[in-house]
Amino acid sequence: MAVQVPTPDQLRAVADDMGLSLTSEDIISFINLMRPSVAAYNVVDAMPDNLPKVRYPRTPGYRPPAEENRHNAWYIKTEVQGASSGKLRGKTVVLKDNIMLAGVPMMNGASTLEGYTPDIDATVVQRILDAGGTIVGKAHCESFCLSGGSHTCAAGPVHNPHKMGYSAGGSSSGSAVLVALGEVDMALGGDQGGSIRMPSSFCGTYGMKPTHGLVPYTGIMPIEIYVDHTGPITATVADNALLLEVLAGPDGYDPRQYDVEVHPYTRAAEGGVKGMKIAVVREGFAQPNAEEAVSAKVRAAIRRLEDQGAEVSEVSIPMHLMAGAIWMPIGVEGLTQTMMWGDGYGVSRPDLYVTSLMDFHRGWRARANELSETTKLFTMFGTYIRRYYGSRYYGKAMNICRRLTAAYDAALAECDLLAMPTTPIKATELPPPDASREVCVDRALNMIANTAPFDISHHPAMAIPCGMVDGLPVSLMLVGRHFDEPSIYRAAFAFERLGDWKAT
What we know:
This protein has 504 residues and is α/β, with parallel strands linked by helices.
């Protein structure tokens, strides 16, 4: 794919984009000055890329028919056997379909990416296989992961495991559904605004968004480097802690990883909540669309922890209610410039760039009408802001975000964990096929208020199923200090031992 010397017409178009006024003589002069640079690019083009080797055999798998995929949670079924021994020996794992599994198709929920097959395994894939796990396929996710509902995947909506026709949450929709149905032991999700915790809340699974950078994001299609997280979704706390134990730690590629602290997470089962200080965040129950029945179930769950010896108090963090506004410039401008116009990666960081994905993903420009309504909305808005206002709001939001992080840190200095509903609402009905754009966007975003703040503050946060309302799960979210996942697991283990959460 050699770089060509620009033609006069091509360079004039570039000059017009830049606002330059060039004569024909100027154009020819610049073309000649660019020839050495073109030659340098072609030296790079001729060199072999430097990508990690694929170590475990696999087949491309197959797309399961409807009778094998009632909830539309599967994208691809395959089987990649890991090492003959290890912590995950005997465990089956499904991957969110934004995670690269070499030789197996990946569409990230978007028709414009369908047909792409990665040529590397993500670091998390290598670690699962090295630990003896068996990867059994890819789970449907939302279109480019830009929805907290489960209705934007180009392959159709994903249905709630407890009620057909209801949302499974997003964007790791299929991952949570397959765990909840018992079709897999474990799943990997991704979380930029709550996309591990929201589907876990709606489906009744345990979903951990680790501290930013604890788990390497290498080989996973980014949205925005500052908010990219990946982590485990499981049916039990023990499996969640076990999978995180396998996944955590630096990989030498991911620039998100600095000063990483890794712990033996499974040992948290040995503790209890007696003496733990849990602060109930008042604002976490004060979201405008909060459902009284959901809040009541979460408060009842917290009281059960108090009955086990936890010291429960209430705290006010007013900035929590403004966190969504702070997230918006970071998330929207970041995804616009990194994932969309940046071909999935952007520039200016020492990452492992999977250029095959970058080349394939560029095709969205010729097929933009196929994008989901949320992808269209955020990409258009981010492009508008960049063109007419520059990047100042991204920068200012990042500055203010430090104050938000400090507000949570101040509360956590006085307690071990913060508590609130994972989502202020339970699962809603899926939008009908003829739903308006306004309804589709609302159902994609109406549940993110409590989850998104911790993607920009980077604190670990876990969704813990704690009851049922109208046949649908309700979830308690516990938030800890940076890299203090063990305290979250300690409380989660204690709550799980109290009995079947579906009966409460």
